[in-house]
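Here is one chain, start to finish.
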Amino acid sequence: MLTPRRVFIPTMTCLTALIISGCGATPTPAPSATTETGSTSTQNTTISEASSPSSRLALTYDGGIMILDGKTFEVLTTIDKEGFLRLQPAGDNRHLVVADGSNYTMLDLGAWTQEHGDHNHYYPTTPSLTQLTFPADKTGHVISSHGKAAMFADGTGTFQVYNPAQLTDESQNTASSLELQTVTLPAAHHGFAIPLDDDRYLVSRGTEESRTGAAVIDAQGNVLSENKDCPGIHGQAQAANDTYTLGCQDGALIYTKGTFTKVTNPQDPYSRSGNQAGDPDSPIVLADYKTDQAAELERPEQFALINTITKERTKIALPEGVSYTFRSLARGPEGSHLLLTTDGQLRFWAEDGTELGSVDIMDSWTESEIWQDPRPAIWVDGETAYVTDPATKKLHVVSLAKIADGTAEVFASIDLPEVPNEINGISRAAELVTTTEVDSDH
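Its structure:
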């Protein structure tokens, strides 16, 4: 058993650039391209083999990150790091990307699966915050797809692209260097970039004052297709058949095979779906549904399901007085939709929107008006959901094995040493995690 310990590792920066201009419709100078390799010193760790795969959980708190074993729920390590921290998958099912507003830093959760012919090998080691750090003005979304990951910088409108397979070196330690390409969009904005096949990217379009739509660009910045009808574009998810949904203030965009399709609900001209949760094996995407454009903080009492095949967005009502937040959305087994609601329940629906049931998790709670404040959050690994309860400093572990029958069970509640905020992790249910990223509604 590992003894919990506190670790602090100062960050270093790696500067790389592949500058691509000319993404907009107005003439710009011809793109210039360079590729550099950033390097850092990374301490080697002891690596041993395990008999089964592991999952690891990372939870942020005010002052750092705590890492838990997904099976024993033991706190393996706590890491000191100041600032408001965000956690997003790095794309290799071993590392997470820690965003602190100014830098992206790789967090090695210390467990991974390695294929070997007709069988796998499983390795655990001590988690650590690596020195593989990349500066980014106003860190935002990190999205992995098609063997690449893109880290977006809102303050510059640029995103850095890397190959997640290169995060680990030949000795199975975090690599001491990582090759990046930097793509520059026409204007800075709170945006995203989704790597597609054939060196293409699905990107948001906009400025600091207004976000207007989406485009697909190639590696030289040429616009291959575009849709300008997505005001306030925010949030994205991957669905089946290499299809993506993008949130708008008046509906959503569906992108598939080079084509954009806008879906709306005419009865609600303003109906924002800015936070979404998808499943790469499901054609349905779970999304929030907000209708009060003037609200300082809207607490929605309905959500939406976006059908990427029929090109429809269906609104589903919750009981009166029951709401949820941007950290409430998740996907479960067999394409099920999960929603952590303010009455303390975890509610679940079948892929087609049929209500299956709910399970009591915690006392009722109220969303803070400050979006950075802790609130209950959910992360799912296969048939297990991990739910944070900041009010009691607990982590609740929920079995989803019988969710198709309408039942779920809380089988463990763990006391935590700190008040949890964000939660993310690496999966024992999959060798490479393909996730959708749910971001703050701000």
